[in-house]
Design goal:
α5 packs across α6 (182-189) and α6 packs across α7. Strands 1-2-9-4-7 form a five-stranded antiparallel beta sheet. Strands 3-8-5-6 form a four-stranded antiparallel beta sheet. It has a two-stranded antiparallel ribbon with strand order 10-11. It has helices at 17-20, 28-31, 114-123, 125-151, 154-169, 182-189, 193-205, 221-227; strands spanning 2-3, 35-39, 44-46, 55-60, 63-68, 74-80, 85-86, 100-103, 107-112, 171-172, 175-176, 209-212, 215-218. It is elongated and about 55 Å long. With 234 residues, it is an alpha+beta fold. It starts with a strand and ends in a 7-residue tail after the last helix.
Amino acid sequence: MKEELTTCSSCINENCFIKKHLHLEQMKSYIDRKRSFTCKKSQQFIIEGAPIQGLYFIYKGKVKTVKTGINGREQIVRLTKDGDTIGFRGFGTSKRYLIGAYALEDTTLCNFSNEDMLEILHNVPEFTFDLMLFYAEELNKSENNIRKIAHMNVRERVIDTLLYIHRKFGQSNGVIGLDLSRKEIADFAGTTEEQVIRVISSLKKELLIKAVGKKIGLTNTDKLKSEIQEHKYL
């Protein structure tokens, strides 16, 4: 990882927790203490089970967070982009990270240490309140994902994953703005690579999606949404 200089005042990520609270006088001293660095594509910067080293905020780039499941298989639990927070699972309650994290492309990260984050939580009530709401929202998402995996069949889970990626990262030039392998799609959908390949092939024949190399584009989102409507698509 290479050290990188980032400036919060010029950051354009309005959804970043730090950026949102930059106007507060109490935050100024903490901004000066942050670390920032760049990870190359595929580089791991959080190791599951390693001691917690504070929270990470994506300045620019894309990241996948993973958790080890049965037989050591990694399950993708979250996909993140500019402004998102990483490493919050277990923060404050555990001494070790409960997830691992990899850069999906060259990514610049800002890091605030454990000590600084705890000071912020104690001294900046507005930040603490917003973080509490963030945790509540993430818990709700996790519970919904568990329900979907339990009730959706493989085709529905793959469709749900493609719609989520499309919603999160957008689409330009006819393809989704995130390049994931078929295995990564399977790891997120909770299925196998072979099943993902079969479902994608079927969706292509039905003209619901298109593939340009490894990249995927959704050509009929309304039809895809209707297939999983009974599961209360969000």
